[in-house]
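Why do we bother with holo predictions? Because pocket geometry can differ from the apo form. Keep that in mind while you read this record for flavin mononucleotide.
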Amino acid sequence: MLSLSPALQARLATSLKIGQFEVKSRVLQSPLSGVTDLVFRRLVRRYAPDSMMYTEMVNATGLHYVKELPKIMEVDPAERPISIQLFDCRPDFLAEAAQMAVAEGADTVDINMGCPVNKITKNGGGSSLLRSPELAADIVRSVVAAVKVPVTVKTRIGWSDKEINAVEFAQRMEEAGAQMLTLHGRTRAQGYNGSARWEWIGKVKEVLSIPVIANGDIFSVEAAVRCLEETKADGVMCSRGTLGYPFLVGEVDHFLKTGELREPPTPIERLECAREHLQMLWEYKGDRGIRQARKHMTWYAKGFMGAADLRGKLSVVETLDQGLDILDRAIVLLQEYGNQTVEESIAPALVSAQ
Ligand SMILES: Cc1cc2nc3c(=O)[nH]c(=O)nc-3n(C[C@H](O)[C@H](O)[C@H](O)COP(=O)(O)O)c2cc1C
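The structure, written out:
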């Protein structure tokens, strides 16, 4: 039986304080480029209304030259708490972008110092800042001076196994004025491979006074609890576990608050959610939304036999009606055959329904 130690229960009894800003949940939805737009966040928030969410990362240089708000930076006035995440290596551009983020409604501004993608690191942003701690500190100081909301940092444990500097780096970010640090327990060299090394999160937690959020491999309630117990972190951030599963943050939050496991969604409920996600993306982004919805829909279509065939069909959807039709037929088949017995039946039925 999953349970919480008394020490963890005591930690969970208070709200998460990011500077002056209080959050009533210790489970956060990570920033995910190409995923955590306003539509996705709306779905996550339905099950986790107290949780902090993040926009996709926004390029500060882009904002400087374009001077208009990209869609990925849009925030619904009703959605709180919300952080806008920025990336860049220029302290002045980041300060300017942070002011735009606050004007858009950001409760906190987060600086990405963990992205491993070459396109970002070769320009000095993301995880390459782990190798330039002085510049990273300048960035934090510059952004802190520019805005009144708390400034936070999300980073990794180091550039590579030979260059693990999470502890010193985190201390410098705190000294520079960061009000919270999220640590992904992998190096840049690891990308998303191997396991997240939570022990480094524990080491960073030991030396910082600001909240430390643990990130990496939180795919279940059980993993979240284990990570909180092992690292003593102030909160956990869910990432890839939420792809096609906007229920995860809420499931973890519910357990941490009540000690009860929420009933997981059935395959039918997941497909109903996919349907809604598709519809909302189309309303928000038009045809581009349909193309973006393809990957989401395939992520939802999991956990029942015949799902692979369904994913094949969903991955090439061209129009809203086509997507809705495929999902509706799959839902009817699941209702008819039950969640266990669709093995042989749903796949051919889906193909013949083409
Ligand atoms: C598709 C994808 C997009 C991501 N986009 C961002 C991003 O915009 N900003 C960021 O800080 N991290 C981003 N990340 C990293 C995640 O937020 C998270 O740190 C990482 O996936 C580790 O957690 P996990 O093992 O639970 O997935 C992204 C990860 C993935 C897989």
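The pocket of flavin mononucleotide is lined by residues 30-35, 56-57, 85, 112, 114-115, 154, 184, 192, 196, 215-218, 239-241 (CB under 6 Å).
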